[in-house]
Amino acid sequence: QVQLVESGGGLVQAGDSLRLSCAASGRTFSTYAMGWFRQAPGKEREFVAAISGNGGSISYVDSVKGRFTISRDNAKNTVFLQMNNLKPEDTAVYYCAARPDTRITSDYRRTRDYPYWGQGTQVTVSS
What we know:
With 127 residues, the protein is mainly beta. The chain has strands at residues 4-7, 10-13, 18-24, 32-39, 46-51, 58-60, 68-73, 78-83, 92-100, 116-117, 121-126. Strand 7 and strand 8 (78-83) form a beta hairpin. The radius of gyration is 13 Å and the shape is globular.
């Protein structure tokens, strides 16, 4: 089992940046693929980015490519989401998720791919 705690959300203006962090419990963090998802009011939870356990494979949803960067520090059991040039449509609750998997792949884009979830952190982007 792994427990996840997100932080770093907030209220920013369009064009600003935020860095989300997700701290994981346990001693086998590198054996988990990690993902970031977001859910806007009235909408389904959607995939944002994913990273393999060793960081060697990364994927993004098209709408954030070139603006968001996912990374991880396995020594600190933490995954990050650097969000630049934020837009009002990025407003959502952001969740990190974990999937036990040692393969070098980030091809996990469905919520059902991830058994472990954090509580979420709110990101609000004003225009």
